Amino acid sequence: MSRAHRRVRIDRPFFRDTQDLYHVRSTILRALTSVLSTWHGILPSVACRVKPCRPLTMAPPARGERCIGLDFKVDDDPKDNCVRPDPVRGDVTIPLADTRVDRAFAAIVLEHCPDPLALLRERNRVMRPGALVLITVPFLWLLQDAPYDERRYTPFAIRRLLQSAGSVDAQVHATGGWDASLGRMIGLWLIRWPLPRPLRAVLKVLSYPVVRLFVRGDRVAEEVDRLMITALWATARRS
Known about the structure:
- This protein is an alpha/beta fold and 239 residues long.
- It contains seven helices and seven strands, in the order ααβαβββαβαβααβ.
- The protein has a single domain, classed as 3-Layer(aba) Sandwich (Rossmann fold).
- The chain starts with a helix and ends with a strand.
């Protein structure tokens, strides 16, 4: 396994140097863990690049048989993306036969799609009737992968999108509320903003207990109006 591959971990612990990524990675892990007992068969992971969730989906309580990596083909530059441990590459067209897939996973990808509805409809084509899809999308996050950062989703928009694609039983959940949002912004500013290295080192020590308190003590309010969220995860079934 390459060094670049090892760096892509979904179970990233909370350290001084991971104050920007801990919450987003831990909430994706929590969402995936919540459905693992129903995971079986062939799993396409959309825009995965290095398939960081493969160990979870191929071990109990999941019963995955094969994890297929799908990624967008931008060009043929060998430097594009960091590592490709045997992914199948595709754009909106998924190179699989109809009703072939038992489960599907798309983490932090729909915000990069120029035509997300076309992608979800294509995903439904390869899924068996009743098959479950798990999707995660950011809400409070920096612009990334420019110029391929297209949009941010509200709970209402992601539900309508899933329904328009032909999915049923859409369930949408927020991954964090007001406290986690503040902790995430502190962590992002601290790690991503170009600060002088000595100043950043001091601030990481000072911010560590504060960010930890905000993200681990966070509670998501049930009221939708005036709700602050960090990200969303959703499940739906192919009709």
